[in-house]
Amino acid sequence: MVVVHKDGARGVHFRRAGPRQKVYFEADEVQAAIVTCGGLCPGLNTVIRELVCGLNHMYGVKRVLGINGGYRGFYARNTITLTPKSVNDIHKRGGTVLGTSRGGHDTKKIVDSIQDRGINQVYIIGGDGTQKGASAIFEEVRRRGLKVSVVGIPKTIDNDIPVIDKSFGFDTAVEEAQRAINAAHVEAESVENGIGVVKLMGRNSGFIAMYATLASRDVDCCLIPESPFYLEGPGGLYEYIEKRLKENGHMVIVIAEGAGQELVSESVQSMGTQDASGNKLLQDVGLWISQKIRDHFAEQKTLPITLKYIDPTYMIRAIPSNASDNVYCTLLAQSAVHGAMAGYTGYTSGLVNGRQTYIPFYRITERQNHVVITDRMWARLLSSTNQPSFLDVKGDHEEKEEEETLHQVPNERISKVTSDNNEISHVYPAAC
Ligand SMILES: Nc1ncnc2c1ncn2[C@@H]1O[C@H](COP(=O)(O)OP(=O)(O)O)[C@@H](O)[C@H]1O
Ligand SMILES: O=P(O)(O)OC[C@H]1O[C@](O)(COP(=O)(O)O)[C@@H](O)[C@@H]1O
């Protein structure tokens, strides 16, 4: 199949007509819509810009609508017309020019609105919840027999979307986290027995905390949701803090927001509530752990500490994307456009093993991406920080087994984890 650029000269040739090829449009038939849902992430505006410019510059598509305020914007809010001119500078700003929201996903109303507005290409930018919503829209579109492409673009600052190599905005988040870690380090080393605590985002997945720690080298301890820890006794956090302070005079702790939630719930009454999308609301583990450390050393009276707690979470999420994320956003958006213009639907555009691919929605939504604590990256972090593995929390036998895995990391195990993580068997190579 051949799709020709508007200038004809640089035609894009699609040699493979894949099984998902269903809805093909001429450029002047296309009425596209773009929506952003869920939490903010650096790069959202870049993706919007490149979708609009990609549609227009590569295919001559002139009609592109922006849906205001997330999914509910399809039926409850106004739309805006997006042109290459109106989006020209938006990538320099954080956030999303379209606005976003949680909750408000009413599949029938959304598809009614798509039909009423004559939309035939929908580009949906968001995380795992958003992709589930996109999948529901795709199924409803199919049930009604509509000629509409539904395309997802994965967004998550937590990097918790499976299959893809990494999410856009993640590099920017890790880079920005360095500023907070550096501040914590400067504060901590300026006083006797100084401790800097930095909380980073990561509801269920500790990727930002892990990569920010590895990048910084100033972090002495990184705590993530995937690796349970404990405070008291041998091998516990208090013991390690005391050791580090005696050795080094100061230390920095990075904690992902989803870490240690079971410990916080034990000591603070759980709010037990959810946000509008059904995500569990977390307790502030950064505040909690800071207070626990202060109380512990105040009680001990042996080591007078000074602790500074820094919470840069929303500052990190709200900045514009850096250069490498800008390039990544451009590739993702252009690839998404090529796929829809080639007639594909029901897919998320993503990078897998360095290749642009079209991934069926069900592959993206069936599970979350987590840090594998028996994998090499976490072992590297433990070696880099020299922090305890906190495996004492389990029985002696289990601990021994896990320790062996961490230190030896057999190749068999790695290749299994890698292939599980990437799940490329049902992912189609992108159109170009
Ligand atoms: N299972 C689901 N089915 C349909 N829509 C969903 C589902 N889960 C979440 N959504 C919708 O997707 C949007 C974003 O979800 P949310 O979990 O807040 O963020 P993210 O997509 O970043 O994970 C919300 O409008 C929410 O209502
Ligand atoms: O305060 P908000 O806007 O609900 O966002 C907080 C959450 O958003 C996140 O950045 C994840 O966002 P998504 O659910 O949109 O992927 C989490 O790290 C954080 O817990």
From TrEMBL:
GO BP: any one term: fructose 6-phosphate metabolic process
Residues in a coiled coil are none
Key words, A-Z: Allosteric enzyme, ATP-binding, Cytoplasm, Glycolysis, Kinase, Magnesium, Metal-binding, Nucleotide-binding, Transferase
Q: What Enzyme Commission number(s) apply to this enzyme?
A: 2.7.1.11
Q: What positions does UniProt annotate as the active site of this protein?
A: 158 (proton acceptor)
Residue numbers for the site described as Important for substrate specificity? Answer: 129
What is the annotated quaternary arrangement, including any partners? Homotetramer.
Protein name per the record: ATP-dependent 6-phosphofructokinase
Organism, as annotated: Vigna radiata var. radiata (Mung bean)
Question: Gene encoding this chain?
Answer: LOC106773835
